[in-house]
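Exercise 7. Given the encoded structure of a 206-residue chain, write a plausible sequence.
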């Protein structure tokens, strides 16, 4: 084959390969965008789901307790030395910022340390001055807590042995809508003003 023909043939192959690559990128990108748009539109981001736990009054509850209310769900434990009490104190400030909008908002504290966090321990802990009044504390068996944490993509891990053990855990606060579905995630360091803004925008969207 003459050199000129070889060059033309090679150039044609390059062009065809480029077109195919561009087409593939477009199709994959559009598919991913559509999937993302669907998750955003439905509020379903693989966060939340069925659970069976016990509240601080010893009453059995499940995921239907989220229905009809906006909920801030967060995972922690009563022996937590810093992040848990700090987060609860910050959520008290968020409630103040929300004003009248806070009447439709409940705060749900899920213990990831069921061995120590009995319903009574949760009740005593959540009555601490400076914490938001009316926080719902939840605990259960180790299996029930693990199932709930998996549903919310929440990480936790026991560290150490004996009575002095502690728990590592994720710090995300999950904003759930009145339909019990995920709306947004709040980081622990977002601050009361910005957190209140995120919640107000979510409430406005419904």
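Solution.
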């Amino acid at each position: 084959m003459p050199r000129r023909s070889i060059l033309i043939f090679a150039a044609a192959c390059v062009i065809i390969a480029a077109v195919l690559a561009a087409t593939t990128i477009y199709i994959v990108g559009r598919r991913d965008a559509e999937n993302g748009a669907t998750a955003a539109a439905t509020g379903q981001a693989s966060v939340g789901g069925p659970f069976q736990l016990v509240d601080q009054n010893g009453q059995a509850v499940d995921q239907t307790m989220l229905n009809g209310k906006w909920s801030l769900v967060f995972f922690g434990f009563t022996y937590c030395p810093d992040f848990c009490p700090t987060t609860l104190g910050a959520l008290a400030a968020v409630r103040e910022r929300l004003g009248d909008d806070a009447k439709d908002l409940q705060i749900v504290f899920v213990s990831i340390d069921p061995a120590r966090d009995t319903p009574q321990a949760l009740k005593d802990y959540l009555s601490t001055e400076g914490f938001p009044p009316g926080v719902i504390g939840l605990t259960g068996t180790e299996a029930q807590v693990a199932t709930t944490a998996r549903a919310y993509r929440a990480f936790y891990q026991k560290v150490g042995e004996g009575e002095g053990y502690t728990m590592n855990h994720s710090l995300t606060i999950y904003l759930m809508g009145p339909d019990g579905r995920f709306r947004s995630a709040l980081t622990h360091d977002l601050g009361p003003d910005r957190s209140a803004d995120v919640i107000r925008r979510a409430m406005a969207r419904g």
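Remark. Residues 69 and 178 are 4 Å apart (CA to CA). Students should compare their own answers with the one above.
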